[in-house]
Amino acid sequence: MTPGLLGGIALLATLVFSLVGLVLAGLALWAQDRRYLEAARRVAPMALLAALTSFGALEWALLTHDFSVRYVALHHSVKDPLWVTLVTPWAALEGSILLWGTLQTLYTWLVSRRVDAGGFKSASTTPLLDPWRAPVALGVLFAIQVFFFAVMVFVAHPFDALPNPPADGRGPNPLLQNHWMMAVHPVLMYLGFVGLSVPFAYALSAMVARRFQSWIFETRWWTLVAWGFLSTAIFAGAWWSYEILGWGGYWAWDPVENASFIPWLLATAFLHTTQVQERRGMFKPWNFAYITLAFAATVFGTFLTRSGVIQSVHAFADGPVGALFLVFLLGVLVVGLGLLSKVSGEVRDAGEVRWKSREGALLAGSLLFGTMAFVVVIGTLWPLVVEALSAAKVSIGAPFFNQVSAPMGVAALLLMGIGPVLPWRNAGPQIRRNLLLLGSALLVGTALGLLLRLTLGVSLSLGLLAYNLCAVGVMIDQGVKERSRALGISRWKAFLELASSSRRRFGSHIVHVGFALAAVAIAFSQTYRFEEAKTLNLGQSWQTAGVELRLRNVGVEDQGNRQSVYALVEMRAVDRRGLWADGTYTTRLNFYPQMGNQGLAAPDLKYTLYNDYYLILQAFDTERGQWATLKLVVTPLVLWLWIAGGIIALGTLYILWPSPQPQRERTAGGATA
Amino acid sequence: MRRFWPLLILALGGLFWWGLQRPDPNALPSVLVGKAAPGFTLPLLKPYRAEWGERLELSQQVGSRPILVNFWASWCLPCRDEAPLLERYWRHYRDRLLIVGINVQDSEAKALEFIQEYGLSFPSVFDPKGTLAVDYGTYGVPETFVIDTQGKVLLRHAGPVSEAALRDMLRKVGLEVL
Amino acid sequence: MKPKHIIGIVVVVGALAYLIFGGLGRNLVYFYTPSECLQNQATCQSRQVRLGGLVKAGTVNYDKDTLDLRFVVTDGVSEFPVQAKGTPPALFGENRGVVVEGRFQEGTFVSTNLLVKHSEGYQAPKEGYTPEQIRKLIEEAK
Description:
The complex is a heterotrimer. Chain A has helices spanning 3-31, 34-63, 70-75, 82-87, 93-112, 134-154, 174-177, 181-209, 215-218, 220-244, 255-280, 284-307, 320-343, 358-390, 398-418, 432-451, 456-487, 491-501, 503-527, 638-656, 663-672, and strands at 393-396, 530-537, 541-544, 547-558, 563-573, 583-591, 600-602, 604-607, 611-620, 627-636. Chain A is α+β, with helices and mostly antiparallel strands. In chain A, helix 5 (93-112) packs antiparallel against helix 6, helix 8 packs parallel to helix 13 and helix 15 (398-418) runs parallel beside helix 17. Chain B has a single domain (30-172), classed as Glutaredoxin (3-Layer(aba) Sandwich). Chains in contact: A-B, A-C, B-C. Chain A binds chain C through residues 173, 317, 371, 375, 378-379, 382, 386, 392-397, 399-400, 403-404, 407, 533-535, 554-556, 558, 562-563, 565, 591, 593-599, 618-619, 622-627, 629, 631, and chain C through 16, 19-20, 23-24, 26-32, 48, 50, 64-65, 67, 86-87, 89-91, 120-121, 123-135, 137-139, 141-142. Chain B: This is Thiol:disulfide interchange protein CycY.
C-alpha cells in the first residue's frame, strides 16, 4: 500500500459516503421516514473517518518523501524541516481543498450528533435538531462535502501520480515556510469558513421546514465559533504579512486579504442581527440573507484567489477549479436567496423597529457592516468590471479602501458604544445622562489628542476609545448597582456574579473594547509611519528618526533548506523618538534554491509598547561583504494591534467557555419570553 | 429586490465567467510576436548529431515548415508533463512541423538522462548558460514559441503547454488537427 | 414611512454612493504599455498609472549610495525613461518584464512602486549567482 493509493481510495470513499449521506437525507425528507435520517446520521462519522485517512495519507506521503505523488514532488523537498513538512498539506491548492473538505466532514459529524432521530412526535422544545429540519440541514452539509471531494477526485486530485518521480522536489513556496504563522493562519481561516456552513445549513432547513425562529438559538454557538476563528485568522494573517512580506505593513487590501475580510464583515452583520431575532423575533429575513451571503462569501473568496480572475500577488495557477467554485458560489446564492424569496411572504417580523433603541442600533450596525462588505466586493471587482466594459486594464489601490473604510469605521465605533447602552424597544429620556457621559468622553478624548498635536483622525480614534470604555463602564456600573440592590449583596460580589453569569454581555464588552483599541493602533500606525533606506559600509553609522544605526557585519549562514545572508546592526536611541530602540538587530535575506538569486527578506523587528523598529536587509555586497542597503521602518503602536487581537480572541473565548450552571436553557427561555 | 436578485446573480456569474475566459491579465505580451525570431546556432545534444549534424542553425530550418521552439530543463517539473506530449505530436506531425527543444541552464548528463527517460526523438540543442532564453525574453521554463515559415514569431506560451493549447497552436500555423 | 425618514435615507444613500463610486473613479489606476501610453497621452501623462514593459538592455543605471535607479521601459515600439528610488528587486534585470506605478514628471516616469513580472512557478533554480556563490564570495572576503 502506498500513500498515494491509500489517499486516493480514502478520497473516493469520502465522496461516496457524502453522496450516500446526501441521498439518504433526501429520502428522509421525501418519505418523512426517520430510518433514513438515522442512516444518514450514521454516514457522517464514516465520511469523517475516510477524510481523516486521506489527510493522513497526504502527511504520510510528505513525511516519507514519496515523490511519486505529484503534490509532494511539487511542494515538498527532503531538505524541509519537520514542521514545514507537516504544514505542507495546506501550502498549495489541492492540499488546502483537502484540509477544507476534511474540516467540513468534522463539522458535519458534529452536527449529525445533534440530530434528534428519536421520532417524528411533535415539535419538541429540546435543543436537538428536529426531524423536520434535520434532513435538510444534513443534506446541505453533505452536498457541500460532495462538492469539495468531487473537485478533488475529478480535477484537483491531491494524490495525482507522477510517472517519473524526481529524486527531490521543489519544496513549498518559500514565502510560506519563512514563518511559523503559516502553520496556524490557514487552519484558523478554514475553521472559520467551514463554521459558517453550519448556520447556513440550519437556515436553509429553517426555511424549508418553515420554522423561522429556533435555528437562531441553535446555531448561536456555531456562529460565534466561526466568527471567532475568522477574526483570529484575520489578525494572524495581518501579523504574518507584517513579519514576512518585508514591506513593514500589515494590510494592503490585496484581493486575498479582501477575500477573508468579506466573510468576516457579513458574519459580523449576521451576529448582530441574530441578537435582535433572539430577543424580539425581528429581522428574520435579514438573518437568512446575511448567513447566505456570509457563506457564499467564503466560497467567493476561494474562487477569487484560486481562479486568477483578479490580479493578485497570491493567486494560484488557474485551472478548472476556479470555474467549479464559481458554479458552487452561484449555486449557494441561488438556493439561499431563492428559498428566502419563496418564503419571504411568510417571514413576518413582529413589531416595528425604532431607530432609537437597541435593535435600531443593531440594525444600523449590521447595515453598516453589510455596506462595508459591499464596498470591499465592489472595490475588488471593479477592475474586472472596467475591463469588461472598456477593455482598459486598471487596478484599484489601497487609497480607495482606506478613504471609504475610515468614515465607516468611525460610524461603527460610534454605534458600538451607544448600541448596548440603549434599551430594547424604545429609548426614553432616562438615557440622557448616559448619552451626555458618552459624548463628553468622546470630546475629552479627542481634545486630549488634539492638545498633544496629533492629527484629527488619530485624536478621534482616541476619543472613540474613551467613549467605548465609558460605555462599557456605564453598562457594568448599572448592572452591578441593580444586582447589588436587588439581592442585597456587595457591589464587588455583584460584579463577580454578573461577570460569570452573563458571559455573553461581558464577553461582548471585552470584544468591543478590543476593536476600539485596534482602531487606535490602526490610526496611529497608518498616520505616523516612517521609513527610509540607506546603503551603509561596515562600521558606518546613520542617524535618522531618533536612532543611530551602525552596520557591524555582513555574513552568510547555511541553514540546510536555505542560505541566510545576514546584516548585524547596532541601534541606539539618540532622542525621545527612538525610545526603547536600543539593541542588536540581525536582519536577513534568505535564499531558497527554488527561488534562485531572489532573496526573501526576513526582517528583524523589535516590538515596543510605543514604536516598532523594523529593519529590512535590501541588498548587500556580494563580492566582499563590505556594505549593505538597509531600510528602517518605524511604526507606532503596532504591538497594540496584536494585543487588541488577543483581547478579541479572549473575549470570544469568554463567551464560549462552558458555564458551570446550565445557562443555555435560562437565556434561551428568557429570550423567547 | 425580490425580483431583481436573480438578475444580479446572473450579472455576477456572467462577469466572472467572462473573467475566467479572458487571456491571463498578468501576462505581458511578448515583444517578439510578429517580429523575426532571434536566430541561433547551438550544439545539438548527442543523440541527435547523427541525424542533424553537430550544430543546429535556426535560419537553415526556416521555410519548409513551421517551427515550435520549446525551452526546457531536466530540473523543471512541468517539463515532465510536457515532454511526452511533445514527443507524441512530433511523431505524428514531423513532416509538417519541426519541434526544437532548447535545453537551458542544465547539465549535459542530466539533460541526456531526461531525454532517455522520455525517449525524446525531436532534436534538442544545449544552451547551459541560457543565453538564448535571454534573447527570447523568457519568464522561465518551460516556455514555447511558434515560428512561422517566414521566420517570424507567431506566438509565445509561458508555462507548460496543455494538449488543448498545443492543438490550438497547430491550428494557428495552418495544420489540420484531428 | 414618514417623509423625514425618506429624506434621511436618500441623504445617507446619496452620501454612500458618492463615497463609493466617486472614490472608485478617483482611485482608478490604468495599466498601459508604452505604446498604449502614447495613444492615450491625455490620461497617461496626467495621472497615476501603471506602465508595463521590458527593461531595455543597456539602460539600467543604479547608484547604491543614493539609491537612485534609472532605466528605460520599452515594448519594442515605444519607450519611456523611468526614475525610481530604492534597491531594485532581485529579479529586476535587462530584458525582463517590469511594471512601474507612478506618474510622469517632465517626460520622465517617476515610479513609486516597482514590480518585477515573472511566473513564480517556472523559475530556474539557478540564475545569476547561486547562494553557494554568494557564500563563497563573502567568505573569501574575510
